[in-house]
Amino acid sequence: MTNIKVILADDHAVFRRSVASFLQCRQGVEIVSEAQNGEEVVTQAARHRPDLVLMDMKMPKQDGFEATRCIKRDSPLTKVVMLTFNANSLYETKGKECGIDGFINKGSVKQALMQLLDNLVASPQQAAA
C-alpha cells in the first residue's frame, strides 16, 4: 500500500502534536512535515508534494486561505483540508474560492480524519472532505 503523504500546519504545537500522534497510529499515513505558519507550509508543500495538507485557518505570517492559494497553484492535486473551530458559510465560500477541498471542525478532528483518510485510500484522485 502506498502511503498518503501528509503535512500538518497549525501554529499551536500541542494541537499539531496531538493530530500527528493520532495519524502516526494509522497504517498507510506518512507525516512528511509539520509547519507552524503559512509561509512554512507553502515551502514544505513545494518540497514534499504531499497528498494532503491539514491546515489551520488562522496562522501567523500567512493565513490558511492564502497558503492554500499558493499550494494549489503549484500542486493542484494536493488536497487541502482546513482545520478550524469557526467553519461557517462565509469561510466555506472563501475557502472554495481559494481551492480548499474541505473543512474539519477541530472539536471532532479524529473521527473526521478517519473518514477523510479512508476516502483518500479508496479513491486518491477524488476524495475530499
CATH fold type: Rossmann fold
**Largest sheet at a glance?**
5 strands, parallel
Oligomer: single chain
H/E topology pattern: EHEHEHEHEH
Write the layout of secondary structure elements.
Blueprint: E1 4-9, H1 13-24, E2 29-35, H2 38-48, E3 52-56, H3 64-74, E4 79-84, H4 89-98, E5 102-105, H5 109-122
Parallel strand pairs: 1-2, 1-3, 3-4, 4-5
What can you tell me about this protein's structure?
It contains five helices and five strands; from the N terminus they run βαβαβαβαβα. The longest helix has 14 residues, at 109-122. A five-stranded parallel β-sheet has the order 2-1-3-4-5, sandwiched between helices. The model has no long low-confidence stretch (mean pLDDT 86). The protein is of the alpha/beta class and 129 residues long.
